[in-house]
Amino acid sequence: MAGALAATALMNADTVITPDDYPQGMVDAGQSAIVDIEVLVSPTGQPETCHVIGVVRARGFVEQSPAEKRTCSLFLKRGKFTPARDADGNAAYGTYRNWVRWATGDGLDAGMPAQVDLEIQVAALPAGVPSRSRVAVDLAVSADGKPGPCAAAVLTAPKPTEILSPPLARAACATLAGSATLGTIVNFAGQPVPTVRRMTARFVVEQAPDKTS
User: Does residue 161 sit within a domain?
Assistant: First the structure.
C-alpha cells in the first residue's frame, strides 16, 4: 500500500551543526551562506553519502568556503535519521534534502529558499488555497530512476507556504508518475539503489488571458 511510504527524517536538527562549528575566519570576515545538501540514508538509518546541490551566497561569501566544505562532513558525522519506508513498510534507502544556514549577525535575517521540485500550473485551486502553495509527497524511485508508488507526506510541522491537501498531493503524484526518469542515486559503494524521496510541488494558478489585447 502506498500509505506505508515514508521518507527519511532528521531527528537531531538542533545538534548536527552548532555555533561552535562556524569557522572563526568566516565569523571575522562576516561571511555567510545557505547550503543546499542531499544526504543518502541507508535502510539502517545511517547517512552514507552527502552532496552539495547549490549555495546561496550572502555578501562576503566566497566560492568553496569552509562552510560549504564542512556542511556535508558534519551531517555524515552527526546526523541521526529515521530510515525511509517503502510501499510495503520495509526499511529502504531514502534521501534527505534541505537548506542549511551558515550565518551570524545580519546574515540571520536572510530568508530561506523554498524547496520546489516541480511546479504545476492549474486553472483554479480549492477554496482558501492561495496560488504558489506547496505540498509534499513521498515518492518511491527505482534504482534506474523510474517513479513508483507515491503518497502525501505526513508532516508534523509544515514549512511556510506548505499545506496539507490530499487532492493536491494526488495531483502531484500523478504528475510525477508521468516523469520518464528522476535520476539515479548511488550508495557509498557506487551502486544504484532504489530510494524513497520527499518531493515538493508548487501549484500556480494560470493567469487568465487578457481579453483586451
Answer: yes
CA distance 31 to 59: 7
Q: How far apart are CA 195 and CA 94, in angstroms?
A: 5
The total domain count for the chain is: 1
Q: What integer is the mean pLDDT of 144-166?
A: 87
Please check whether residue 108 lies inside any domain of the structure: yes
Read off φ and ψ for residue 171, nearest 5 degrees.
Answer: -65, -40
Tell me the whole-structure pTM to 2 decimals: 0.87
Residue 83 and residue 134: Cα distance in Å, rounded? 24
Core vs surface per residue 128-152: b (16+ CB within 10 A) or e: ebeeebbbbbbbbbeeebebbbbbb
d(CA 41, CA 187): 9
Task: Determine, yes or no, domain membership for 210.
Answer: no
Q: Which domain holds residue 106?
A: 2-205
Q: Cell 530512476 belongs to which residue?
A: 145
- Tens digits of residue pLDDT in 14-53: 899 988 888 887 778 777 888 999 999 999 999 999 999 9
User: Of 120, 142, 147, which is closest to residue 131 (Cα–Cα)?
Assistant: 120
Rounded Cα distance between 210 and 126, Å, is 23
